[in-house]
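Q: I have two molecules that I believe assemble together. Could you output structure tokens for the complex as a whole instead of separate predictions?
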Amino acid sequence: MRVTESTIYQQTIAQANAALAKVAKAQGELSSGLRVQAPSDDPQAAGLLVRHKFDQAQITAIQNGAQSAANELNAADSALGDVSTILARAQAVATQLGNDTYTADERAAAAEEVDGLFKQVVNSLNARFGDRYIFGGYSDDQAPFAADGTYQGDTGVRQVEVASGVYEDASIRADVMAKGVGGGVDILQTLTDLSAALRSNDGDAIRASIGSLQAGINQVATAQSHAGTSVNLFTATVSACSQQLTDETKVISQLGDADVMDASTQLSLAQYALNATLTAASQTLNFSLVNLLGK
Amino acid sequence: MDLVSLLNNTANGLAAIQAKVATTSNNIANANTPGYARQQANLVEATSTMLGGNRGFIGGGVKLLNVTQTRDQFVESQLPTAFANSSGSTAESDALASVSVFDNGTVGALTDAMGAFYSSLTAMAQNPGDSSLRQSVVGSATSLAATFNRTSAVLEQARSGIDASMTGAVQQVNSILAQVAELNRRISVAEASGGQPNDLLDQRHNLMDQAAQFIGTTQVPDDHGNISLVLPGGTTLVSASSAATLTLQSSATNRGHLEIVFAPSDGSAPVVMRQSELGGQIGGLLSARDVVLGQASTDLDTLAFDFATKLNAQNRAGFTLDGNPGGDVFSIGATSSNAAATITLDPAMAANPSLLAAAGSATSGPGDATNLQAMVSTQSALLSNGLDVKQGMAKIVSDFGTAASDAQNATNFNGKVLQSLQDARSSASGVSLDDEMVNLTQEQHAYQAMAKVINAAGALLDVLINMVPNS
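A: Yes, here they are, computed for all two components at once.
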């Protein structure tokens, strides 16, 4: 093939441009730390990056929600623990004052304590987490229990996402736990009855309340157990989400991030190729018969 | 054969050698002229003379036959398509490379905004009565609508930028077409008178290369020295000495972007050209604008419309904090047309986050998130294209990436094909200074030898003249 100077010039320009483009790409990869900068660098990886980044945001949101739910349920557990302690005290009072050796005055004085215990139970059941009443069901913007023990909340059970589209209970039905809806004991009514029995010096009624209070304590314990199970579930969700986020971060890094060692090697290779191209060109372009004739 | 004839023959030989030197000189001078094909002065033997008495022919020396240009028609016939393909894919690739809205790590990308919106919904679902969480949903929804608007605007700006490039390219094409038609006329005239107008042929070649680069025309020669320029779709732009004109007009069906109108040279009705009928730089630009970016823009509109429609419908199915039926979250048109550019947060919603219809019933308390959970799950609902929101976004990015990557690969491939054909053209038609130096030396020696012949003939004449006795 006949080779002319213009062929060599054009090839020199094309080769130098190609070598320089490789240097620029390797340099961009190294300085940005990204293997996939534009979607054209790896279209499939670019699409997967979109999916994984979206998943990452969703997992973070689920993790935050589960953490809030766990915190709220811990607060509920603590409030239920208080209620349980108060009921145990009421039961102790009933057991002690159930003995007919106590006078009407002594029983009336004990009734005062039971009234105080009633108020403490109402206060505990009106516990708030942030601005939210924990035991009101969906009606979480007002105190679920009136001063007289009437339940003002509803029967809703709030649910929180533990995985995409999967929801778990994140609240306790206070109407069941405290008011005995569905066949249980109304613990507030039991306290009211105990107070009334103490005031009326009715030994039989006082002794009868001991069993009801025990049923109430068991009822609260059952609710506490549910809350504990849910706390465990949401805590496990938080941990699982942490693991998922670690995995997602790893996948995103594998898909899109530059391998620094590899990128450095590519840069060195590209620089070497550019140097070789320019050196070869500088030596070739000097040769011409024009320079040698007529000397 | 007499000595004077010998001198005449030699003088003719000197003239022929001078023509060769002149051609060599012209080659050297035009070594870097675009479109120039190396010329060759072709010499032939001059007619020989019969000696008296049938004693044989004496050669008549040398004379110049003609000056031709060296072109390899096999290579030349492949070059227009190679020029068209290379500039087409380069223009498309460059246009797409300038769009960075889908780049990995772009701040404010649609994926991040969509992720943040659904995250805020999930957060609110944990405590739907919390006003700060509601406000956060409104904030992320506003940001999402703005991101749709911005992404759409960036794509439209890129498409408008291509319009601007096309304006300049079409002006140049019209100028080239007119010049080729005029050169066709002048070359026909020159060739009719028997010559080969090499300079005009070179100019026409150069213009035809440019036409192929700009709009992808191929060349069809006729018997009269004319070359017609024909588009990939079969439309003839130049026929003999008449050239068609291309104009640009705003398209009513393509968001006002420019479309190319072909006005035939015979005065018949103008025709709007389709992208598939055009090649070269203009074809590549149109492919980037209408095929790749147009598709990304349409997909983005469909995504915005389907997403907003589904979310609005779900919000309408629920009940607000005040127990009223929910309304729209986003304001969106009746069709997907231009949806990404026009989507906004519903003004009533922007002013009052309590309108987020989280509750599943009118009578339930503020903690009811049953409808909000359904709104969260719209992220997995299939949209009109059979994909969910996440897959839809991934598809837009990977489709764009695939098209840009294809254009880059095509640019590399077409560039290499063009380079090898240009090397072949350069091999056949290019000027090699080494060749010309050797030719020049050869011609110099020939000229010196001829001069020696004149010296010898002169000496012989001197002998003859001196033989005549002085009177």
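A: One point stands out. The radius of gyration of chain A is 39 Å.
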